[in-house]
Amino acid sequence: MRAFLSSLWLILSLAVLGVAGQVEGATGLKPIAFFDQRAPSLHSARWWKEVVLAPPLVDKTLLASLRDLGVAVTVALPPGPSDAARETAVRQFSAEGATGFVIDACRPAFGADADALFALIRRVAPKARIHWRCPDRRAPPELSALAGVIVEGLFTAVEPNRPRLPKPLPAIQEQTALLRARYVDKGIPVAAVEWLPTGRLAEARLLAQSLALARVTPFIHVEGEREGVGLIEPVPRKILGLYNRAEDDFLPFSLLHRMAALPLEYLGYTLEYRDVDKQGLPSGDLRDQYAGVVSWFVGPLSFPLEYGEWLTRQLDAGVRVAILGSLGASPTPALLDRLGLAASRRPLVAPVTPTLRCGCSLQTKCDSKIGCFRSRPTTPAKTK
Asked: How confident is the model at residue 229 (pLDDT cuts 50, 70, 90)?
């Protein structure tokens, strides 16, 4: 019921803003992403035109990689104890590859120094793009020198120690009209940053569309999601396929290729093969690189414990895993529990009816909310 009301609120917001049918107004917007807690993935960052980083995330290697991808990097400047410290920070970030800066006019630490910082950036880095945060509370000193303004909480209200709640529709309409008159209509881009709780990804997509139709560049953080939702939402279309060449010497004849590749390609995925015996197991965060992992082994691997630990880490990280054929890993209690399985020492006596841990048989499906249900049986094709 809450999800329905939230979606209804967004639809009503879109109607009240009067932006229906103005899709062409969003065509000139450039995708921008904001990162304040974790660094962006290079696999998805290539799709953004500009990324805004918090100072702790600024790294020479990361900035060089983003620059090679053609992505502009903007740094949110922290308040410094003095003009000299701020000038040093601007010079350092510029030398490391930053091409823009955000002046957070809402932070009490800046206060009246926000205007002075604006002048300092123009003097030290005259080619740097300057973004002004909180333009609705404190107007920037010079509009013509701005690359854009950033607003937060356009749709949601922020209260200390309380979850973000939707603003009243008249307040949304008033603030949006003000941003249009002051900035959008004068050719100054406006970017809006919002935060939504866990499980509200669909709502975030709808909110991003509403903001874009209002000619505001959106970026919606969803708690628990690595990447936010903006004008674009990078979605990996590759599947990591694990196989053991010691079992299948010729890849085109392997079970993984013959049995799994065609269904995955039919669904729009690309299968990327990896021989775990010679190439080993991949490291790093796989969520940004692959839509999932599929394995097809004939028997256990030569490193079953290591593979089991790796498999558990991927599951804990939220990577989707499909296991066909042999498990390949040691069936430890921790791994079995993570897979939703349970070991049994009872002897197998025909006929055998496998059951899932939830009590459903394999002829039925198991759902955590509704329990067991039977899928529609398939009818064998008639032959003449």
From this structure: confident
How many Å apart are CA 43 and CA 271, to the nearest integer?
17
From the CB of residue 183, how many other CB atoms can be counted at a distance below 10 Å? 23
Burial class (CB in 10 A: 0-12, 13-18, 19+), 271: middle
CA dihedral angle for residue 143, residue 148, residue 154, residue 159, rounded to 10 degrees: -90
Question: Which candidate, 187, 115, 119, 174, places its Cα nearest to that of 148?
Answer: 187
Residue 325 CB burial class (10 angstroms; 0-12, 13-18, ≥19)? middle
Q: What is the mean pLDDT of the chain?
A: 76
Rounded distance, CA 191 to CA 212, Å?
Answer: 9
* E strands, the chain, in order: 32-35, 50-53, 72-76, 100-104, 129-133, 148-152, 156-157, 165-166, 190-196, 217-222, 229-230, 238-243, 270-275, 292-297, 321-325, 364-367, 371-374
Supply the pLDDT for residue 169: 74
Residue 5 neighbours by CB under 8 Å, 6+ apart? none
CB-neighbour burial class of residue 39 (10 A; exposed 0-12, middle 13-18, buried 19+): middle
Which position has the token pair 């874009």? 212
Q: Which of 7, 29, 6, 44 is nearest to 225 (CA)?
A: 44
Half-sphere exposure of 29 (CA within 13 A, CB side): 27
Distance CA 24, CA 347 (A): 67
Nearest to 163 by CA among 208, 217, 199, 212: 199
Largest CA distance in the chain: 89
Q: For the chain, where are the alpha helices, taking DSSP H only?
A: 2-17, 42-45, 60-68, 83-95, 113-124, 169-182, 201-213, 255, 261-266, 304-316, 333-339
Tell me the whole-structure pTM to 2 decimals. Answer: 0.63
Cα dist from 84 to 87, 110, 118, 124, 227, whole Å? 5, 14, 14, 11, 35
What is the distance between the alpha carbons of residues 40 and 53, in angstroms, rounded to a whole number? 9
Assigned token pair, 343: 């070991």
Question: Tokens 């790093």 sit at which residue?
Answer: 284
